[in-house]
Design a protein that fits this description.
single chain; about 80 residues; alpha+beta; 3-stranded mixed beta sheet; 1 helix; globular; Prot_inh_pot1_sf; Prot_inh_pot1; protease inhibitor; serine-type endopeptidase inhibitor activity; serine protease inhibitor
């Protein structure tokens, strides 16, 4: 008997990553993700040097950007944003 995560959509063609946003400004990436997936309630900007947990959250997208701290909205994305 297989187990499935209760928060994952049953539809397989739902977008779960945004490779086209690498190199875009953090605020722009956040807006695109929110527009394309309104069910994502936590699209967050994370400095690429930050230590992050490896827990999985089905309504979160971390957007890694090239800043050290503070307001990272104008920093550019350095990795593919994906749900998790």
């Amino acid at each position: 008997m297989g187990l499935t995560a209760p928060c994952l959509p049953a539809v397989t063609d739902v977008k779960s990553s945004w490779p086209e946003l690498v190199g875009k400004k953090g605020n722009e990436a956040k807006a695109v993700i929110s527009r394309e997936r309104p069910d994502i309630t936590r699209a967050i900007l994370v400095p690429q040097v930050a230590v992050i947990t490896d827990d999985y959250c089905c309504n979160r997208v971390r957007i890694l950007v090239n800043c050290n701290a503070g307001d990272c909205g104008e920093a550019t994305g350095t990795a593919v944003p994906m749900i998790g």
